[in-house]
What we know:
The structure is a single chain. The chain is 69% helix and 0% strand. By secondary structure, the chain is mostly helical. The radius of gyration is 18 Å and the shape is elongated. 19% of the residues are buried. The model is unreliable at 1-39 and 158-162 (pLDDT under 50).
Amino acid sequence: MIRVPxxxxxxxxxxxxxxxxxxxxxxxxxxxxxxxxxxxxxxxxRAMEHMMPGKFVDGRIAFLKTELKITPAQEAQWQQVEAxxxxxxxxxxxxxxxxxxxxxxxxxxxxxxxREQFAKVRxxxxxxxxxxxxxxxxSLSPEQQQxxxxxxxxxxxxxxxx
Length: 162
């Protein structure tokens, strides 16, 4: 059996994720001991199974709710944002799973179609989140809006993973 360094597996996983247009934040692998190192495709498969966006949506929701200091009066609007984030994670998980199942058997046209599918899922997810987030944002205090502006910025991209 060929042993592949963990750093190589992480780089391969990152590259594979970037090739299908996903953000790499969920694509980190767990280090393996030399005795349990697997082939790159096995490691990628296990990492994708364990690091799906839906597995982290609860933590992202809790983080944002805490950081935004959502009040009881804002709870109804927050519930819409939470539902949008859960649906977005579900849609992205489904698309990733389908892509992963078909990845080895795709030709160039199918890969481009897959990229288009991911773009559509992202556009739909962004539209869903925006529709839910706008009413919440208008109900936020200036301090809460300032925090939202920091959290929902070009540098954090939490909205792409949810």
